[in-house]
């Protein structure tokens, strides 16, 4: 299902891979370390001995965490450059099979292969959501779970952001154009711009249901007291959530 938009998205991720990887340490960047990585790990149903797919693995930090805990990991990304970096950062004896593929077409992976599929901050970047969910569903064993984090679709819209006073204090977080679904450019504070796709919460939930998943858990991660003491700037994350994490299950 590769089309012009997918090709351009992939080209941009290749260009951005180096910069993106620079901001990723063992537990991800700071937002991932505080809000996403521990939440996703807590939702997995065991790790040791599990066959897990990391969908949209990027430079592979999550795959390495899973492999360290004893999982057999298949890590897929469509960016060749991301995968080069992932392989450079992975020791030869780690049980990680890195593969270059579009999540819309995982034909190299047989059906009902994985106990669990996880995806960290990649699903809002895919061009055709239904195709990706269909492939994830196909490669999961019956009863298997799909756990994924995305930008919170209700608060992070193409024109969202802080409205600040002259001192830089956040007056309020503004969102707009919620119902205008489609492609937008994510900047990550550098000149490179990668594609994201804004979809409403309704679109996400209905796409999951029509694929055949049932929804088990939804988490809007917020910083704990302990996190706030260590990283006071995270108090802004209590005003509006940036992320949403869902756990869904394929029927037995
Ligand atoms: C925001 S990064 C997240 C990477 C990694 N999961 C992490 O948490 O660091 C999104 C990743 O999804 C990949 N990606 C986007 N669309 C994809 C697609 N259709 N198929 C495979 N990979 C895709 C990009 O190349 C990029 O590496």
TrEMBL record:
Pfam annotation, one family: Methyltransf_11
BP GO terms, sorted: methylation
Source organism, top-level taxon: Bacteria
Keywords: Methyltransferase, S-adenosyl-L-methionine, Transferase
CDD domains attached to this UniProt entry: AdoMet_MTases (cd02440)
InterPro entries in UniProt: Methyltransf_11 (IPR013216), SAM-dependent_MTases_sf (IPR029063)
Residue ranges occupied by any Methyltransferase type domain in the UniProt entry: 53-148
Keyword Transport: no
GO molecular function, one term: S-adenosylmethionine-dependent methyltransferase activity
Gene3D superfamilies on file: Vaccinia Virus protein VP39
Keyword Transcription regulation attributed: no
PANTHER family found in the cross-reference section: METHYLTRANSFERASE, UBIQUINONE BIOSYNTHESIS O-METHYLTRANSFERASE, MITOCHONDRIAL
Protein name: Methyltransferase domain-containing protein
The organism's taxonomic lineage, starting at the top: Bacteria, Bacillati, Bacillota, Bacilli, Lactobacillales
